Amino acid sequence: MRKILVIGIGAGNPEHMTVQAVGALNRADVLLIPTKGDEKAFLADARREICDRFLENARCRILDYAVPVRRADGSYEDGVNDWHRAIAAIYERTLLDDVGEDETLGLLVWGDPMLYDSTLRIIDHVRTAGRVAFEIEVIPGITSVQALCAGHAITLNRIGLPVEITTGRRLAEAWPGTARDALVMLDGVEAFRRVEDPEADIWWGAYLGTPHEILLSGRLADIADTISETRRKARAAHGWIMDTYLIRRPAPEAEEGAA
């Protein structure tokens, strides 16, 4: 039976590759690398660098595919679902046309497949279609969350307090739930600027794990403008930006003490 290896490759640094991920890479007969146009060529190049550095299986074939463009009209959820189905069709065609019945397809996933990545959902579309049978194995990877905390030398959680992981789109709608700490990913709207708590702190990072990595931290009210300007300049320089940040509001005990 065909097999799909979903391999977490880390947040951009080839040294994030675990021993398990390197082993999985070398079990693949076919590796499928997504390309997202000139602006995000770095993402494909980073995957190729990993292959150049760690791939020892000379029989492995490396195939590229152009990632379909997600439509912007209509509802967000419908656009995402249509986009996933389009990518699923590419996976399915690759399995049928380029992967033998006893071969393995490797998918190199930025970060870890479980965190704000849709590869596993897309594979579910392929499975549901039922036109090709396959097994699946997932290899965990280092995420931008880990890279952010390591870069700033901080812990993700405070003792006894929850952390909510959310997106910029959700944070812009309202501070997440009852959590006083929010880890924010996929923020294209600079939602941090809408947090009104004057005592909130932020630890921000862009291009985490890559040679372009940028780290900023401090009182959010003091450095929000600096982060916005840094984002603007970085996007202009590289054509794209991926950033992650942690916002912390004062703990209830601190507020009571201040009162």
Automatic annotation (TrEMBL):
Its EC number is 2.1.1.152. Pfam families: TP_methylase (PF00590). Coiled coil: none annotated. Keywords: Cobalamin biosynthesis, Methyltransferase, S-adenosyl-L-methionine, Transferase. InterPro entries: 4pyrrol_Mease (IPR000878), 4pyrrol_Methylase_sf (IPR035996), 4pyrrole_Mease_sub1 (IPR014777), 4pyrrole_Mease_sub2 (IPR014776), CobF (IPR012797). It comes from the Bacteria. Pathway: Cofactor biosynthesis; adenosylcobalamin biosynthesis. It catalyses: precorrin-5 + S-adenosyl-L-methionine + H2O = precorrin-6A + acetate + S-adenosyl-L-homocysteine + 2 H(+). Residues 3-223 form the Tetrapyrrole methylase domain. PANTHER family: COBALT-PRECORRIN-2 C(20)-METHYLTRANSFERASE, PRECORRIN-6A SYNTHASE [DEACETYLATING]. This is Precorrin-6A synthase [deacetylating].
